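User: Second chain of the day. Same drill as before.
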Amino acid sequence: MKKIGIISAMVILCSCSAKFITPTQVDVDRVSSTYPGYTLTDLNQGKSIYEQNCNKCHGLKKLSSQSEKDWNVVVPEMVAKANKKAGSTIIDAKAQDQLLKYILTMRTPGKKVRAAF
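Assistant: Same format as last time:
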């Protein structure tokens, strides 16, 4: 019985940690040809925007839960909803770009990401 509890806890922790992968320079280097001039600061800013805003209306989604094509549709829609709900622009165009690039970069860590825009 104790083993089941330990295994269950590990599964829960692993599934949650996938949402909060800490970006590194390796991630930036991996997408440097897709996002020229992209920096670790930009990537971390996107992570911060994701964590601070996306969970206000729903739980943080696993980044690999959507395809790149879907994220390119979902993010602008959700940003518009968040801004409308706030009654002002809480996520501007630059922040939306950082958010989307963070999601697309980190949705498949260790794999090359191609941008659709």
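The chain has one domain: 2-106.

User: Great, on to the next one.
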